[in-house]
Amino acid sequence: MIAGLPGRFQCGGKVAFGCGLRQGEVLGVAVEDLDSKQRLVRVNRQIKLVRSTMVLSLPKGERVRTVPMPDELARALKAHMKAYPPKEIALPWAKPDGAERRFRLLFTTEQGKAYHRSVLNEGDWKRALVSAGVIPPREKGAPRFAAAPEDGMHALRHAYASVLLDAGETIRALAEYLGHSDPGFRLRTYTHLMPASESRTRRAIDAAFASGGGEGEGSGEGESATVCTACALAAWSGAGGAAEAGPGGRFLGRSGRVRAGQEACRRASSRHLRILSKETTAPPLPGWLANRTRSERASMSRMPRPCSRSA
Prior knowledge:
three-stranded antiparallel beta sheet, 311 residues, disordered C terminus, single chain, alpha+beta, globular
């Protein structure tokens, strides 16, 4: 996909994928936002349309943030700035009649102007989709390319989140990198990717067998602390509250969703039952749930449905 973009904007696609930036944030990246020594990209602004006029503004939700810069992206940015030197662009701030501000933007058109979102989406981005085989070529005489509402530039941001989650990054860190105040929003959006790889599943079960965890259901010895997303959130957000007994008085939590998730996990894995039991000491939180307050875990536990591992 990125390879199908024109040369002067290929690195823009790499920034979207390599740092999870929104399209407007990519278009607003300036030289001063790059910290090559610490390998960081500072997301300080975006370019957006206000009544069809391009303006500069703070990122969505006014969430200025810092994102790690992968080494490969650092090399790509260096090569890009050598081939396409940054241009100083002046645009109004926040509103069409706002005070003008100037920045040396990394990504500009051949005419040395800031990219217009609509022109980019209907032109260079659609041609990249055609080159990747996502949409058919534009028919002769047709005024536009085929519609592709699910395949906009935002797909690169989703790919960034998916790769990080599959690699084991925490929801909290991912929410910070993406500029979201609610980690639960990311969890509800990407929970089907945590974890996703079949090889990780095989390694986890092999490790459990090697440590004796497979010697009879419910033995619990040497089992991994990994649990399914829904049940871990339900258990830990409810921990410390008034217990509401389920079958045998063993379950923690106060909502029907918690009990339903526990019952589903009981059928699927005795390990989950042990973690949710009042009669044993709960293991440490999984990495992606660590270092957050109980209120954060409670907000993250508002899942669309209980665990369905047993389905």
